[in-house]
Design a protein that fits this description.
This protein is mainly β. It contains one helix and 25 strands.
Length: 294
């Protein structure tokens, strides 16, 4: 499905309610990564009901043990179209017997995409349709193309991070274990005098850069010439990931706002104790909103 307003247009798939394309109207450049499986076979998946990995692929909930793959199952689920207009579309996913076998909480997700001026506004609403408290995490994982990518270049682009409109000049970067779980240590990364973080072939050598504790609420992406490409704003994400496939020198990067993150290595407690978990009372709604501006 394609939505547009004469300035920009976006394409959204019923599979995973995934954003699969975004362009300025009448221009050829595609902002969204086109899922070349040689690098990464997705575009911009929704992460739900967990972000990252649960320890050993199993988690505990209310005394039971359940299997869960990395980033959850929403990205692999078929959504239905609830309503559609020229400039917006809303898709819906509801729990069923299959989801309850791996996630014992009844739910409904409404995924709304709307174009406004030069922006795509995304609103994911999670509804607890059960009778008890619901625990979950949610996050976005959009990939963005780097124009004129040349593997031989040292710098392929730049990140510019903001917090309350002010440049972020240093980052506390969380580390992952080789198996993709949260490690205990973190490092301090100082940015250049312009508060720019260069995207180099070695930036993601240890996997994603994980930024916890609300260090940013807006990440801008620049091309290798220093021209601004886009921004992604999200005020409800305490954790952000910056990622591109390690050791592949890929022609794209991901800017990922998260309400949640992977388990610490060895965590075997209840889902209610996971880092940055959302607790939603019966009948209540939680909104996860972000905006991409080009």
């Amino acid at each position: 499905m394609i939505i547009g307003n004469g300035i920009i247009e976006a394409q959204i798939s019923e599979q995973g309610a995934e954003l699969t394309g975004m362009k300025r109207t009448g221009r050829p450049f595609e902002y969204i990564w086109q899922a070349d499986a040689a690098f990464w076979g997705r575009h911009a998946p929704m992460l739900f009901p967990i972000v990252g990995k649960v320890w050993n692929g199993q988690y505990q909930a209310g005394g039971g043990s359940y299997p869960m793959s990395q980033h959850g199952f929403a990205r692999d689920s078929r959504f239905s179209v609830l309503n559609a207009a020229g400039d917006s579309v809303t898709l819906v996913l509801e729990s069923d017997a299959g989801t309850l076998k791996k996630y014992p909480f009844p739910f409904r997700i409404e995924a709304e995409y709307r174009v406004t001026d030069c922006s795509l506004e995304v609103s994911w609403r999670v509804v607890n349709t059960g009778s008890g408290e619901m625990f979950f995490q949610i996050g976005a994982h959009p990939g963005f193309n780097l124009p004129d990518h040349d593997p031989a270049d040292y710098i392929h682009g730049y990140f510019h991070l903001l917090s309350d409109g002010e440049p972020v000049r240093s980052l506390i970067v969380g580390k992952l274990t080789p198996d993709g779980y949260r490690a205990d240590e973190a490092s301090l990364m100082s940015l250049d005098t312009d508060a720019m973080l260069p995207v180099t072939s070695g930036l993601f050598s240890a996997d994603a850069l994980v930024l916890e504790e609300h260090q940013t609420d807006c990440v801008e992406l620049y091309d290798k010439y220093g021209n601004r490409l886009l921004s992604l704003e999200c005020t409800c994400a305490p954790v952000w990931g910056l990622w591109s496939p390690p050791a592949k020198n890929a022609p794209f990067v991901c800017i990922e706002p998260w309400q949640g993150r992977c388990d610490a290595a060895g965590y075997s407690g209840d889902i209610s104790g996971r880092d940055y978990i959302c607790s939603l009372p019966a009948g209540s709604t939680y909104s996860f909103d972000y905006r991409i501006t080009v």
